[in-house]
# Entry
Amino acid sequence: MDKTRSGWSWLQSRLRWLRPGLGVKRWLLLLAAGATLVGLGAAFLVLDLSRPGPAFTWRWLLLGRAALLGGLGLVCILVAVAQTQRVLLAPFVQPGQDVASAVSEHRRKGRGPKLVAIGGGTGLSTLLRGLKAHTANLTAIVTVADDGGSSGRLRQTLGVLPPGDFRNCLAALADDEALTTQLFQYRFGGDEGLGGHSFGNLFISAMTEVVGSFERALVESSRVLAIRGQVLPSTLRNVTLVGELAVEGAAVSRVEGESRIPLASGAIQRVYLQPEDVPAYPAAIKALLEADLIVLGPGSLYTSLLPNLLVPDLAAAIAASRALKVYVSNTATQPGETGGYTVLDHVQAIERHTQPGLFPVVLANNRQQGRLLPRLEWVSVDPPVNGTRRLVLADLADPERPWRHDSAKTAAALMHLLTQAEAERALAV
# Structure
């Protein structure tokens, strides 16, 4: 009975191509006609060559008949294939883009390197927006320690993982950042009810209730936005980020909450997760172990980047991976977190919380031009990063907002580093 139903379903799906208005049948008929003409031409050619021939002139005329039929058939086949392709791929091609370019671009990015970007906040979404132009094999691993704003409210009221950073990454990876993506990023005004919430946060939270899990909600949201790549949580556990801050002349204070740490007085000495020994999301570990390039940053050092590395299994997977591992340093300091920090201070903070040499390549900005926001300072590249670490300097700053990275320039610099690393490996073999 099941086989009969399966066969009937298969037949029904094939018969749908015969429905009026699809614009496919005419080209299928032309394709059949072209194949028939090619077959006739081939048959005439074999027949004319096999039997005793008439006069020389007549033989060439007969061969010309076969060539004419075959050529006309080939033209019909080429036109039918091109038009069928255009009809079938029309729903997937952007306006103004031809089918050949769309298919070529899809294939190029599908064969691109496997990249993993780790972080959260604005920095991660900025990086993803640049990397998606180079490959479709892109994974974002996002912190789940966010407890401020709309994400924090939804986390408290609904018990879901904070959706804000995930929403930003999904929007950045969307194939077409048009109306649907703008809707996903829309934030309601006002102070009560929906005020302060973004539509994307509510959508992911509602999807979590509908499908039963946060990770499944991310998959379904990815389909809605037709993103390139995947967005994964570092862990599925509900964690709290805790910071230890030192104030001159006072004891070390303990502050709980990712959103509260930058607002507290004192210099951050250490951050940790509570509970500490949380398991990493398995798909994130798999992506790290299979990656060609792993990128940490840019982003808030203590509240966006380190919470991911504090998941023990995740840090172990990074260390075990054979990928090129690059830390992208911020262009400017962040008040309440990294005031007065140099590039080396950023690197040493990462290594204090993990292990030395976890990210042996450091990519930093050397274009310190333009006006920064109040209380911000350029991240100095002095003292130099040396020893087991390699410092690479490049123009990474956004000309309009120099305290942020330019997505295209940062992605290009990373891809150049990956190309260099692959060339060095090839020479070493």
